[in-house]
């Protein structure tokens, strides 16, 4: 009885603290102390949700806040990422197809932190931003939080006062030992929608079965991520024959599968039907790119750049391929992806270069 009383007291104090901060009624949810009122979110402060225990900067997830990681990660100026899923009690996501996001219930929150652990000087760790996608009755909404320099709190900046986004000057060290200085871009809500848009509605990108059907090292041990969601009560079921993407860094995998996985996570959300770049000639979703023409092989460029770049992919010749040119550029008029990066992803460009060089077919 004492233990039950003590637990109840802790819950009560936590909820009162959050209520004082937001002036709203908090909602206690099944077997976790997450503070979530779907009619009141997004909150002004990240800490109010109580997704994490202890010092906020440690990102130690609270009960039922489940970490996840797609097989291949979206490149964002070499930022590291920590991702989590939380759902209210009594609801579950369902499987649709391998290449469509899970059908998440109302109240689902997808949490994504962007940070560096080699900020100069001193190789310090610094969280730059946290992005939430929250599923409300009207659909998915964005909530962008900027961290303070003390790393004690992240404040909400999404909304009418943040229409142009912002930038943060940072210097970090790459794995190669090279120091990089850049103006890290923190997107506006409009910029978020540019990439997270399908049928003119906001939608998540990475939480597809094809991307989650890989193992993750949880505190309790290594487990398939979809199976973990089933065990947590977050997913009803999933098929055993999912055609999955791979980690593009894994050189034990076939070169073409690595390249297709890279393009899927970095480019396919725009280069698909009813998305931002649906007018382009290529379709880069993993389930389509076994067809080389979808990747742009021997396909004439749909807009002129210069006479030497006639085709999106010229087999055996990266220097005459539009895709290689765009991935190698930082010019806002030429680079791809257009948003999400200010510097070149050297490893991604090298992967594309290797793949183009391996092609030996002749274009008509």
Provide structural commentary.
- The protein has 364 residues and is an alpha+beta fold.
- The protein has 2 domains: 2-231, no CATH class; 255-358, no CATH class.
- Helix content is 21%, strand content 23%.
- The strands form 6 sheets. Strands 5-6-7-8-9-10 form a 6-stranded antiparallel sheet, with no helix packed on it. A two-stranded antiparallel sheet has the order 1-2.
- Helix 5 (255-267) crosses helix 8 (346-358).
- The longest helix is centred in the N-terminal third of the chain and has 21 residues, at 2-22.
- The radius of gyration is 22 Å and the shape is globular.
- Mean pLDDT is 87; it is low at 1-31.
Summary of the model, kept short:
The protein has eight helices and 16 strands.
**What is the N-to-C order of secondary-structure elements (H for helix, E for strand)?**
HEEEEEEEEEEEEHEEHEEHHHHH
Mean pLDDT: 87
Low-confidence stretches: 1-31
Helix and strand content put the structural class at: alpha+beta
Largest sheet: 6 strands, antiparallel
Number of helical elements: 8
Calculate Rg over CA atoms.
22 Å
Biggest sheet strand order reads 5-6-7-8-9-10
Report the portion of residues in β strands: 15-25%
Q: Percent helix among the residues?
A: 10-25%
The termini sit apart by: 80 Å
The structural domain count equals 2
Q: Give the overall silhouette.
A: globular
């Amino acid at each position: 009885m004492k233990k039950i009383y003590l637990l109840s007291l802790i819950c009560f104090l936590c909820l009162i603290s959050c209520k004082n901060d937001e002036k709203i009624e908090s909602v206690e949810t099944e077997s976790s102390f997450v503070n979530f009122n779907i009619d009141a979110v997004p909150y002004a402060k990240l800490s109010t949700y109580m997704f994490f225990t202890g010092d906020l900067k440690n990102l130690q997830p609270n009960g039922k806040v489940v970490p996840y990681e797609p097989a291949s990660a979206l490149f964002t100026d070499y930022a590291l990422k920590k991702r989590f899923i939380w759902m209210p009690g009594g609801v579950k996501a369902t499987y649709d197809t391998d290449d469509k996001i899970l059908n998440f219930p109302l109240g689902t929150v997808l949490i994504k932190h962007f940070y560096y652990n080699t900020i100069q000087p001193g190789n310090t760790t610094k969280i730059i931003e946290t992005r939430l996608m929250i599923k409300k009755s009207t659909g998915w909404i964005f909530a962008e939080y900027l961290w303070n320099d003390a790393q004690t709190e992240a404040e909400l900046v999404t909304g009418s006062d943040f229409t142009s986004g912002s930038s943060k000057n940072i210097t970090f060290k790459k794995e190669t030992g090279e120091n990089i200085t850049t103006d890290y871009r923190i997107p506006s809500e409009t910029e978020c929608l540019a990439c997270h848009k399908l049928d003119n509605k906001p939608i998540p990108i990475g939480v597809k079965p094809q991307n989650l059907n890989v193992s993750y090292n949880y505190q309790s041990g290594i487990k398939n991520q979809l199976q973990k969601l089933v065990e947590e009560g977050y997913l009803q079921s999933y098929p055993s024959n999912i055609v999955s993407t791979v980690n593009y860094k894994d050189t034990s995998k076939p070169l073409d599968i690595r390249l297709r996985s890279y393009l899927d996570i970095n480019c396919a959300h725009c280069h698909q039907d009813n998305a931002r770049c649906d007018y382009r000639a290529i379709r880069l979703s993993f389930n389509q790119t076994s067809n080389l023409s979808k990747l742009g092989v021997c396909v004439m460029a749909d807009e002129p750049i210069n006479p030497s770049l006639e085709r999106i992919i010229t087999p055996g010749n990266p220097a005459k391929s539009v895709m290689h040119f765009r991935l190698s550029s930082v010019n806002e008029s030429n680079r791809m992806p257009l948003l999400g990066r200010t510097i070149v992803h050297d490893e991604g460009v090298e992967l594309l270069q290797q793949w183009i060089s391996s092609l030996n077919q002749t274009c008509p």
